[in-house]
Amino acid sequence: MNSAEWSSAAQRPPTSEVPHRLLEELLLIWTTSLLRYHRQYAADEACVTDPGPNSTNPYRRTSILGMSHPPVGDQASPTTVFPARAIHTLDSTVPSGSAIAVKDGRFLAVGEVDELVDVYGGTVDHSLADKVLLPGFVEAHSHKDTGGIWQFTYVGFEARRGPNGRLWRGCTTFDAVVDRLREADRLLDDPDEPLLAWGLDPIFWPGERFDRRQLDTVSTTRRIFVAHSNMHLATVNSALMEQEGIDPDTLAEGVPKDDSGWPTGELQEFPAMALAGQTFRSFFGRTQSDESVLMFGQAARNVGVTTVADLGTSNLLDEAVVRQWIDIADETFPMRAAMFHGALMSAPDGDEACASAMVDLKRRSTDRVRFGNVKLLMDGSIQGGTARLRWPGYLHGGPNGIWLIAPDQAAERIGPYHRAGLLVHTHANGDQAVDALLDAFDQVQTANPLPDHRHTIQHCQMTTPGQYRRMKALGMCANVFSNHTWFWGDQHRAITVGPDRAARMNAARTALDIGVPLSMHSDSPVTPLGPLHVAWAAVNRQTPKGEIMGEHERVTVAEAMHAVTMGAAWQLRMDDVIGSITPQKFADCAVLDADPFEVDPAELRDIPVWGTMSGGVLHEGSPQTDA
Fold this sequence. Notes:
Blueprint: H1 3-10, H2 20-47, E1 80-88, E2 96-103, E3 106-111, H3 113-120, E4 123-124, E5 132-135, E6 137-142, H4 145-148, E7 153-154, E8 160-161, E9 166-168, H5 174-186, E10 195-200, H6 212-216, E11 224-228, E12 233-236, H7 238-244, E13 266-268, H8 270-273, H9 277-286, H10 290-302, E14 305-314, H11 319-328, E15 336-342, H12 351-362, E16 369-377, H13 410-419, E17 423-428, H14 431-447, E18 456-459, H15 465-473, E19 477-480, H16 484-487, H17 489-496, H18 498-503, H19 508-514, E20 518-520, H20 531-540, H21 557-571, E21 589-592, E22 609-614, E23 617-620, E24 625-626
Parallel strand pairs: 1-4, 1-5, 6-14, 7-10, 9-24, 10-11, 14-15, 15-16, 16-17, 17-18, 18-19, 19-20
Antiparallel strand pairs: 1-2, 2-3, 5-21, 8-9, 11-12, 12-13, 21-22, 22-23
Helix pairs in contact: 1-2, 12-13, 13-14, 20-21
């Protein structure tokens, strides 16, 4: 029945012998209900009114998705309406609009300006009128030291931009690394202060390995610790080795030695890096400061990220660390965080006790910080030679990596967290590591079936179609390291695995076609934080030399955008509050200067990012400067 039929029915004479007074009361109730319905019907009709292309209204109506009524009487409304050049919601119900209404830090509605103001009241903020809005990007694999690591000297091969917008030129030769380290050494007044640096990438220099000999030309007295870009290895000088007793008698795994029996200075994986003692603790300890967290937020804001997963960087058994995140990540902070406890190195009383502590901690989650997640690691880095690969192993003939959790112990490690209902994300780069991990998850899921667990394999670089089919059967997710195609694609083709296996790496197309829930990540600071670059790498699969590394594994722009928003939100169990521009979700947006769905896909990574909206608060990015 439409509004005209309701009005006609309300005026019909009575056809029964109902007492006159009772009939009047019934008509009053009926008429009141009619009026309420008519008002709501009129509002619904306005939602779909289209005045046509020649309308003088600059905010042409197409659709509106709302969830509440306008304020009554003189009640003040905190609603703010933000018009934009284009809005992509990634919500199939209302995929686009030209304005959003925000109230109490959440999306109230999507539609057109005049409709939103008419229905919800409030004020119009034109700050974003020339911008393109997408859901805030979700970085599902990054690390807290994304911010704090910039207090150390950068010696990476690629140019990188710090959280303050400053561009650091890449060090493309041995000599360039040594020169930058010498300059940093000159700036240190205290002779006992270690020289800490990061970003080293020896794979770009085939032949002689960068080791303690080059670092000894910087200083023979000051301790030097240089983390590799993959953060799974470090190189130290002779002064540090002497202080910490790293010598020919050191038998630890991950300490390679030269022909004379002396350690080369390269320390592979965290147990070996820990041999650097006080300097190792200083390096990673300094990245845990309040300033590091603040700089992490700054870096996220610069690239449109509104939610990050801090995967295993923080020891969440430490109450000071928990309080730090809760205190800093308030409504003024530009990002939310899904915190994953690093259980591989921080479960001193065993995994059962650690799982119990994480269950308790989960109850302290806020709108800005989520607890109750755990990260584990199976193997290391492919370009660092510490990942575990199936036959035929590494093309360069090196040893087959390092197990960080022995295959026969994986189910035992994972089990307590799974039984506790916690979210478990596990690092597995090599296909042999994925085999062991799938066997372990099969075992724990068979013993304790848990629906909708969303356990995720992180990186999945060498994961095969058969392994993806097992992942789907087990209800698991994949977070693919698509950036590798650009940052190390040529090296994977020529050095690590050869062109055929390289073309199959980071197989996002295969994962989607098989039906495995997919996200993509930067693993920042391993590669720069930036979902547009991550998406560009998956869409184009181009190497620095211009090779297309696996054209049949390309995905579309729409699929890539979904992966860095809703796909990532799903894997973090946050898809009910982030990942799309949908009423009731947090008002988090990536604010761009160009439209990812309109630019040439080859230019996706070059789209300028203005900043973000987090909980309805605007955060403009840092101005960019050259070093």
